[in-house]
């Protein structure tokens, strides 16, 4: 069985209700503010605003042009005419630009005239063979006057005749003045037998010429 609560317990007390605090609004201050605004506007004079639709465009007038110190209107016409200072600056800039363009054109013409006035050097016909001969003589490792296979002339004939005087070197060889393969082999044989090493094998150079002429000199 449930036991009844004892007297004086917290359950016998009445529940607490929420307390609402009401604060009065300060309407007096708001009313005073409106009164001050009404008193302040009482001293102002009301102005009537015209209706925009009743405006007449014909009543508007253009402002007269501004006159300069000389008593004449600006050349540009209208209210946006340029003053004398701007015109002078524009004229100065135009003259400076024209001077720069003219100076640059004069420099270009001067350079072209100088280039056209200097002629290109042309090699003479007489100098070419001399240069070729000297270059070939300097580039020949066997010395000037070297004879090799393919050459012909009196110098080749003299070589053939001298080789015929050396026993078994050019036996039965031709003396027609042509440096052929047979003559090349005879020159190489002479170089090998007599220990000549200064010239290319089969080429009649300075060393081979000196050795052959010393052995075939006429008394």
TrEMBL record:
Keyword tags: Membrane, Transmembrane, Transmembrane helix
Signal peptide: none
Entry-linked InterPro entries: Peptidoglycan-bd-like, PGBD-like_sf, PGBDSf
Keyword GTP-binding carried by entry: no
Pfam family, one: PG_binding_1
Highest taxon of the lineage: Bacteria
Annotated Low complexity bias: 123-139
TM regions (residue ranges): 89-109
Region Disordered, annotated ranges: 36-79, 117-154
Keyword Cytoplasm part of the UniProt annotation: no
Record domain Peptidoglycan binding-like: where: 152-212
Protein name: Peptidoglycan binding-like domain-containing protein
């Amino acid at each position: 069985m449930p036991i009844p609560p004892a007297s004086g317990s917290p359950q016998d007390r009445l529940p607490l209700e929420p307390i609402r605090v009401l604060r009065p609004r300060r309407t007096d201050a708001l009313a005073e503010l409106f009164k001050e605004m009404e008193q302040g506007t009482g001293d102002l004079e009301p102005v009537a605003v015209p209706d925009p639709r009743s405006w007449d465009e014909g009543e508007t007038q253009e402002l007269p042009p501004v006159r300069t110190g000389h008593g004449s209107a600006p050349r540009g016409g209208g209210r946006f005419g340029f003053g004398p200072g701007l015109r002078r600056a524009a004229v100065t800039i135009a003259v400076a630009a024209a001077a720069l363009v003219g100076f640059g054109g004069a420099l270009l013409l001067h350079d072209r005239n100088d280039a056209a006035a200097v002629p290109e050097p042309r090699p003479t016909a007489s100098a070419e063979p001399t240069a070729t001969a000297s270059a070939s003589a300097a580039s020949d490792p066997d010395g000037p006057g070297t004879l090799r296979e393919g050459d012909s002339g009196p110098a080749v004939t003299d070589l053939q005749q001298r080789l015929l005087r050396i026993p078994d070197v050019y036996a039965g060889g031709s003396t027609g003045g042509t440096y052929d393969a047979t003559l090349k082999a005879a020159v190489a044989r002479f170089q090998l037998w007599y220990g000549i090493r200064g010239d290319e094998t089969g080429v009649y150079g300075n060393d081979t010429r000196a050795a052959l002429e010393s052995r075939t000199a006429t008394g």
